Amino acid sequence: MKHYGIVQWVDFSRGVVAAGEAQGMREHVAAGCSECHDMANFCERLSRICRGMAPMPVPEEAVQAVRAIFSTKISRPSKRSFRIPIEVIFDSFLVPAPAGLRASWQVGWQALYHAGECSLDLRVEPELYTCRAAIIGQVSNHQAPESEMANLPVCLRSGKVVVAETRSNRFGEFQMEYEQQKRLQLYVYLDGGARCIQVPLKRFVAETPVGGDRLKPNATPKNNVHSGLSGRSKGSRG
User: Fold this and answer.
1) Would the pTM count as exceeding 0.70?
2) Distance between CA atoms of residues 107 and 17, nearest Å
3) Of 156 and 66, which is predicted with more confidence?
4) Cα–Cα dist 113/91, whole Å
5) d(CA 175, CA 164)
């Protein structure tokens, strides 16, 4: 006896199965298939629960977490964008850590950039013992704080390869997870792609120095003011 799969029963409970197929599924259960009968009841209960939850608001952090896991295909601007020169306002790897903390694990990197009227706040959190990392950021207008920075295309590239991409929410926030690679560049497109903010991202590598394990970036910006790929060298920390 042919059985129907859970995907088919979920679609049946949602009422999206073609009329002919739905009739066949009913007849199959009526013929005495206990396995499909139990599966149909389970999917019906599940659908009722989901329909009851539909009006409930979804937390924004949950939406960002899901978008970070699943690739979001977006239409990137096709025309060449003007690259806005960026200024480094804060870089956590250029700020010496307290003496008692210097032997501890370095679990992330934070930075703040100004690009024209925009501010770009970034945080990179690498996973220990893996090559994966998460980037969390926010774009805002420091000259007009009330401006909404919603639905901005955000793209992470390694050369010409798109590693990850998403869009900002109504607060200008975005989040992505990605496999660390060389020459990673973060692009935030403004004005429909006419302008873009380009920031080089640090790549974290595992080390085992005296005093314990830690993570270390392999590059930091050399100058406080630079444009895109220019002005990068090996960083130093106190």
Assistant:
1) no
2) 49
3) 156
4) 9
5) 10
